[in-house]
Design a protein that fits this description.
CATH architecture: 3-Layer(aba) Sandwich
Order of helices and strands: HEEEEHEHEEHEE
Number of helices: 4
CATH topology: Trna Endonuclease, Chain: A, domain 1
Number of strands: 9
Helix content: 25-40%
Shape: globular
Low-confidence stretches: 126-134, 137-144
Structural class: alpha+beta
Distance between the termini: 28 Å
Largest sheet: 6 strands, mixed
CATH class: Alpha Beta
Mean pLDDT: 85
Strand order of the largest sheet: 8-7-6-4-3-9
């Protein structure tokens, strides 16, 4: 599935379930990965199965666990902190190299809200915003 389809699935599935899944390190908290170009991203998935596939594959590592957040908690904590720190949010990274769209936190929120307003429109059907990156593989883990 293409990165844009994964991003669209993120928006639709998060709206349907009200949940977001992330990877935490049991000691360091939510994981942040180094991307090319000196950028960093915190990946988030719209289902537990999606994140487990990544933990069983390209993002496997000791001490890594799945954490579930409500959409409200994700917005008020993860998106807020990522915006303050200049960290992108990776949407439904997938595949053998853990690739996908990495968006500015405010763009994640606006795309999910656009999907809420118009469920028949794909949230990523427009031209990607300037901060849109197709990242991966994450080559370095940073402390949460």
């Amino acid at each position: 599935m293409s990165a844009s389809k994964q991003a669209n699935a993120f928006c639709r599935e998060v709206l349907a379930s009200g949940e977001v899944f992330m990877i935490e390190h049991e000691r360091d908290g939510v994981m942040t990965f180094h991307l090319a170009g000196d950028q960093h991203a915190r990946p988030a998935w719209s289902s537990r199965n999606r994140v487990i596939r990544m933990l069983e594959g390209p993002l496997a590592g000791s001490g890594r666990v799945v954490t579930r957040l409500s959409w409200h908690d994700f917005v008020s904590s993860i998106l807020r902190d990522a915006a303050t720190e200049g960290v992108l949010i990776g949407l439904n990274w997938s595949g053998p190299r853990a690739r996908g769209y990495n968006l500015h936190p405010s763009d994640v929120l606006s795309r999910v809200e656009a999907q809420r307003r118009d469920p028949n429109r794909d949230a990523c059907e427009t031209t990607p915003s300037p901060e849109l990156e197709q990242g991966g593989p994450p080559d370095q883990r940073l402390a949460g």
